[in-house]
Design a protein that fits this description.
CATH topology of the largest domain: Alpha-Beta Plaits
Structural class: alpha+beta
Number of helices: 7
Radius of gyration: 22 Å
Largest sheet: 9 strands, mixed
CATH architecture of the largest domain: 2-Layer Sandwich
Helix content: 10-25%
Strand content: 25-35%
CATH superfamily of the largest domain: Pseudouridine synthase I, catalytic domain, N-terminal subdomain
CATH class of the largest domain: Alpha Beta
Distance between the termini: 34 Å
Number of strands: 15
Bound molecules: uracil
Length: 243
Amino acid sequence: MQRLDKVLVETGRWSRKEAKELIRRGQVLVNGVVIRQPERKIEPEAAALTVRGEQISWNRYCYLMMNKPAGVLTATKDREQKTVLDLLPTALRRQGVVPVGRLDKDTEGLLLLTNDGVLAHQLLSPRYRVKKCYLVATDGTVDQEDVTAFRGGMVLRDGTQCLPAELEALEAGYCLVTLREGKYHQVKRMLAACGKPVRALKRLSIGALKLDDTLEAGHWRELTEEKVRGLKKAVQGDQTEQI
Ligand code: URA
């Protein structure tokens, strides 16, 4: 059960103030009955909502894929700098979507945003070991010794123990890194420990969810139900099927 004004805000169409005003004016019907108390509790999944004669749909959760551009902070707000939430329309911000985890300011690529706190927590928790794959440009080309060091579970300069990770050399100066955790600056610190500083970093996938390569930097789109299902599978251990 949830307050009626909150349900209206979560549709993304109205601010809290606007929602309260609509309700008090008698412009909101729940199951065909005018409700004038913003604090009235309703069951949003089951209730038929009408605002000024228009039927309104409400979804509990919203899931977005963004191609994060470099130069934008992974944060919900910042006084001076642009954040990933600044790239979203008001309606989505009102629904309470937040980034799942963090990409550095200079990192690009796949960023998930959602208001589903449970899935967000599971995707981030080292317990579920969800794979995150990055395309990396480095100074110097990685070699077999680096691959072995990644595979063995590296200890970083400050003593941080990393889980075993995958490193695959591509053409000179490029590699793919796959982690099953997300420690602070982890890819940069792991490669720095191998003497191969990172020049550029782009996340390509989370679990089986791949960054849509037609999605331009700074753009986003809602995930289909199928992709959301795929992500949920990743926290149940199935990260094989590409979605
Ligand atoms: N590892 C990093 O070093 N930076 C990121 O943004 C993501 C992973």
